[in-house]
Amino acid sequence: MPYVRRVPYLEHDDLTSRIGAYDLHKHLVALELCGGESFSAWKGCLDDLVARGFRAPVLAIIDGNAGLRRAVGLVWSRAAVQRCCVHKLRNLTRKAPKHALAEIRDDFHRIVYAANAETASTAYAAFERTWIKSCPGVVASLREGGDELLTFFAFPKAQWKTLRTTNTIERLHEEFRRRVKTQGSLPSEDAALILLFSLVASGQIKLRRIDGWRKIAAVLSKHTAVAA
């Protein structure tokens, strides 16, 4: 693993892999087997990245795992956090009555697909007013994500599609599952790990540049100026 001077974005879906974006491309920066997603497991993972020269990212894109969120806050306290909007929508729909699913989905989309942060905040408030009485569990779940559902609005608009979800990791896992589904089973957990790494390292699974990659230099310059 080469020394990473700057890593503007880090994306997570689960313990299988972590994706970092630097030098305008996405890169697989860690791959390991773990028995669960506890705080201690995640902190150990992030501590290992730091020990290998991985500097704190500008943005960490994560799902709703509480252990990961706590670990990110402790190890990379200055990193911005974006909660995956796809995962949050799934959580909302699980708590919603069937007859309200379409409306709740549309109202959530008005938040995360808003033209700007101000419009998103207005849509967020409207969502709360609309559903607080009939679906309090849905509103409580939305509030659990809070402002971290809207972090991506602080970045260049060209990057919003990439930054608001953990879809990069999802696609990586889908490609892996597609390639192994005909095998029935693998001989060991280590074999699965080696196979996934080999598919990425050989280029059989490709990680394309993030949307709005031309804006990465500007994001880094702004972040450096703020840090200074």
Folded structure, characterized:
The chain is an alpha/beta fold and 228 residues long. 50% of the residues lie in helices and 12% in strands. Strands 3-2-1-4-5 form a five-stranded mixed β-sheet, with helices on both faces. The chain starts with 8 loop residues before the first strand and ends with a helix. The model is unreliable at 1-17 (pLDDT under 50).
Keywords:
alpha/beta, Nucleotidyltransferase, domain 5, 10 helices, 5 strands
Report a brief summary of the structure.
The chain has helices at residues 39-51, 66-75, 85-94, 101-112, 117-131, 136-145, 160-163, 167-180, 189-201, 216-227, and strands spanning 9-14, 17-22, 25-31, 59-62, 80-83. The chain is α/β, with parallel strands linked by helices.
